[in-house]
Specification:
By secondary structure, the chain is an alpha/beta fold. It has a single domain, classed as 3-Layer(aba) Sandwich (Rossmann fold). The protein is 30% helix and 23% strand. The chain is built from 6 helices and 10 strands. The strands form 2 sheets. The protein has a 7-stranded mixed beta sheet with strand order 1-9-8-5-4-2-3. It has a 3-stranded antiparallel beta sheet with strand order 7-6-10, covered by helices on one side. The longest helix is centred in the N-terminal third of the chain and has 15 residues. It is globular. 36% of the residues are buried. One of its GO terms (biological process) is organic phosphonate metabolic process. This is Phosphonate C-P lyase system protein PhnH. Keywords: Lyase. InterPro entries: PhnH-like_sp (IPR038058), Phosphonate_metab_PhnH (IPR008772). One of its GO terms (molecular function) is lyase activity.
Amino acid sequence: MAIDQIHDLQQVYRKLLNSMSRPGTISLIEQETERVDVDFGCANALMLSAMVLLDAEVTFHVLSENRRDLIEKISEYTSARFAPLQEADFIIVLQKDEESEILAAMAQCKIGSLIDPQQSATWIIETTVLSNSGALLLTGPGIETEAQLSTGQSIRFWQARDSRIKEHPMGLDMIFADGSSQIACLPRTVSAIPMEVE
């Protein structure tokens, strides 16, 4: 892998932090993804996000369990351990995953507790294309008044997310990565209201 494990991943980390602290902000990590010379079988932006966030101290679950190749590569590059959905610290969702599986997983993943809200799952989701036009109206911390974001997920997806973040501070955080080397983040504290059918 031609990517610089220190400099390039540090840049990705900074851009992830920027997007997480400013929900709806789409960060471009094209310079970093262009250096990836391994075919991971998913968007390079998704894999670099995983490489930045996962390590030997955390667990992950790939929703497409038949993707043994991706599971092995994530473990190899991050030292994180694969775990059952209900125990995973990070949940990887691929673009081709069925919506019914995604909704079922969202209902089962951990969302922390009132005492330990940080014991929740962070979702890293591969999506078609991210844009700041249309679909979702975002409000909450890190957004001056409101922001817009389009991720390609359905209204049912956002309703399922909404049902899992109702009891603040419990909930789940989401990172979206597309094939155009863009990333966007949606922390649990942000309200995402569908403006139209995606």
